[in-house]
Amino acid sequence: MRNYNFLFIILLGITLANCGDTKKEENSLFTFDISTFKEQYQPQEAIDLGILNPKSKEIDSIVYYVNDKKIGSKKGLDKVNFPFKDQKLGYQNFKALVYFEGENAVATQRIELVSNVQPKSLKYTIVNTFPHDTASFTEGLEFYKDTLYESTGEKGASYFRKYDYKTGKVYQQVNIDSKYFGEGITFINNKIYQLTWQEKTGFIYNATTLKLEKTFTYDKDIEGWGMTNDGKYIYQTDGTEKIWKMDPETQKMIDYINVYSGNFKIKAVNELELINGKFYVNVFQKDAIAVVNPTSGAVEGILDMSGLRKLLNATPDDVLNGIAYNPKTKTIFITGKNWNKMFEITVSE
To answer: Which pLDDT belongs to residue 243?
Structure first.
């Protein structure tokens, strides 16, 4: 009964809606044969793609595409079997280019690919508790060379700082222009990358001097939320179910994953940290951390952090946000926006 209640509270609490509706755009000649289609599929499944020809046109061939990538072609009305095992979770957009009687026409259809992973219930143990500045509207938290760095939001009060987490003593702080709402930070290649929320602007600083070296504009029409990296690429969130992969040299987005817990997409993915090959992510306005497979986007574990509330002097609006892994101690540091405490924890099943 405990596991059922846990999943009910956490899964339904941190997700928005099941978005498994199909979308069909018809032309006047051909449509996908959806007689055997389901609204949702899992990665171990496959689908048969075929076309209906209600006006009995003489079809020469059909070329099939999934997410604009060609997957095969067939003569006449022969079907294509497409396995989902290598596809990213989320909507799969099918297209059929039908060649007939010297002409061509397009039919489209989509389904949703969801996770086949049952998230594990994880638990945490508090190792230490430290003071946290209640004026800090926490957006990012990260260790670099054994020192903790934190970035904050709110226009006119956005900065990032390095400080002694045990005492709260600030070693150095960089304030950003009041027209920007600061968001997540990450360290890579001896640089600090910082996002802003809706201004579509990022900053690159020297990690040693904290001097600003470059300002860049997002190459996608997205918001800036959390950041982390794997030593080669930066990963950032935008307030949706997506985690984007960015080339730090060009600041260009080169890929993304969609985060799913079972049949549900997890929206409002916020601050994140890559820990032992998995994304640990905050979900905006929820007292939970999801552990996400960085390749598939599947939620593999869920940490219910609601128990921290009773140890805080915080309002419901002071949301959980801030995850930093200390490789020296192999522990995780957790805090929230305007929280008066920071917690050092370990995680286990």
So the answer is: 98
Q: Which of 5-9, 243-247, 314-318 has the lowest mean pLDDT?
A: 5-9
* This prediction's pTM: 0.89
Encode burial over 277-300: b for 16+ CB neighbours within 10 A, e otherwise: eebbbbbbebbbbbbbbbebbbbb
Closest to 181 in 3D by CA, of 202, 197, 170, 166: 197
| Contact present, 236 and 225 (Cβ < 8 Å) | yes
- Domain assignment of residue 1, yes or no: no
Cα separation, 239 vs 348, in Å, equals 28
Say yes or no: 149 and 245 in one domain: yes
Distance CA 54, CA 61 (A): 16
Q: Which amino acid type is present at position 347?
A: V
pLDDT by residue (tens digit) across 57-81?
A: 999 999 999 999 999 999 999 999 9
Q: What angle do CA 263, 287, 266 make, to 5 degrees?
A: 25
- Same domain, residue pair 85 and 148: no
Residue 269 near residue 226 (C-beta atoms within 8 A): yes
Q: How many helices (H) and strands (E) does the chain have?
A: 1, 32
- Rounded CA separation 144/273 (Å): 13
Is residue 105 located within the same domain as residue 169?
no
Instruction: Please indicate, yes or no, if residue 135 is contained in any of the structural domains.
Output: yes
One domain for residues 69 and 105: yes
Q: At 9, phi and psi to the nearest 5?
A: -70, -45
- Mark whether 104 and 226 lie in a shared domain: no
Per DSSP, the three-state class of 11 is: helix
Residues 222 and 301 in one domain: yes
Reduce the DSSP state of residue 44 to 3 states and report it: coil
Per the CB < 8 A criterion, the answer to whether 46 and 37 are in contact is no
